[in-house]
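Appendix C: a fully annotated inverse folding record. The material below is reproduced so that readers can follow the format used throughout the book. The structure is listed first as tokens, followed by the designed sequence.
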């Protein structure tokens, strides 16, 4: 039980990777507050539904989690959206949505969480970036840019807050079998099971990631086993290092 007596906030908790993180944190003893637009179906210790586009909600989430759980030790900024297309196909609305959910919300949540974690003697923040934040892939210009931004912010915050015993790191997955990936296939007219199987053939390990493969690394980064890691961008890619 690595997370006994630990309190955690997880955003994007209703999504594929977020739900796995919540399940695994709770299985290892953590008390977890879940944040997403609809958290009604999620087993958790506290439910904090809301829209991360509302700045007051994002600003207030860490304190709300702290109050309802009786403390806060771990924050997982996992919520995200993907917009597809080259710059010439990207609308202002795509830009605003991508930047606001993928960058501004974790910035606001981290800014509010850091003093709370520091007052308790430290803690951990884990951000979900992407391998596309490290090396861009084609036809997702603004998504890649936002993931590069959160990767950079993770490195900066990891450096700036280490002296407060707050470790801030990011996980950088390649393709993961979640609603985000599957709805993309459906929108493009592909059968998602067939497309996931085909995509798996391009991965040296022979399959794309399941959400639990990513959650395991998030839990490691949140745990004391990662006690000397600050500002790390940890790629989780089955051996497929490029977009
Ligand atoms: P998902 O779509 O299953 O989950 C994302 C969750 O974020 C959803 O539950 C959604 O409701 C929530 N969310 C989005 N906008 C929100 C808003 N405005 N307010 C509140 N909640 C909001 O996707 P996932 O694959 O589980 O993605 C989790 C994270 O992993 C994302 O940051 C994503 O960019 C990243 N990622 C995913 C993949 C992949 O292949 N699936 C690869 C690399 C990185």
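Designed amino acids, in order:
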């Amino acid at each position: 039980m690595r997370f006994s007596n630990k309190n955690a906030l997880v955003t994007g908790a209703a999504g594929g990777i977020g739900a796995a993180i919540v399940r695994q944190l709770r299985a290892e003893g953590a008390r977890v507050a879940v944040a997403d637009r609809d958290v009604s179906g999620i087993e958790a210790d506290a439910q904090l539904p809301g829209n991360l586009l509302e700045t007051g909600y994002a600003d207030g989430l860490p304190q709300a989690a702290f109050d309802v759980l009786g403390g806060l030790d771990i924050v997982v900024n996992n919520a995200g959206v993907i917009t597809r297309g080259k710059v010439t196909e990207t609308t202002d609305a795509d830009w605003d949505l991508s930047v606001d959910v993928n960058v501004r919300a974790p910035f606001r949540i981290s800014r509010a969480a850091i003093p709370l974690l520091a007052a308790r003697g430290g803690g951990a923040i884990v951000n979900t970036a992407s391998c596309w934040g490290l090396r861009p892939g084609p036809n997702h210009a603004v998504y890649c840019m936002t993931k590069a931004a959160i990767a950079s912010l993770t490195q900066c915050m990891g450096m700036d807050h280490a002296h407060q015993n707050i470790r801030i790191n990011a996980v950088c997955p390649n393709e993961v079998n979640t609603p985000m990936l599957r709805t993309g296939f459906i929108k493009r007219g592909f059968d998602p099971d067939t497309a996931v199987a085909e995509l798996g053939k391009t991965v040296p390990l022979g399959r794309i990631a399941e959400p639990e493969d990513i959650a395991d690394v998030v839990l490691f980064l949140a745990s004391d086993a990662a006690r000397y890691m600050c500002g790390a961008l940890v790629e989780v890619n089955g051996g497929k290092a490029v977009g």
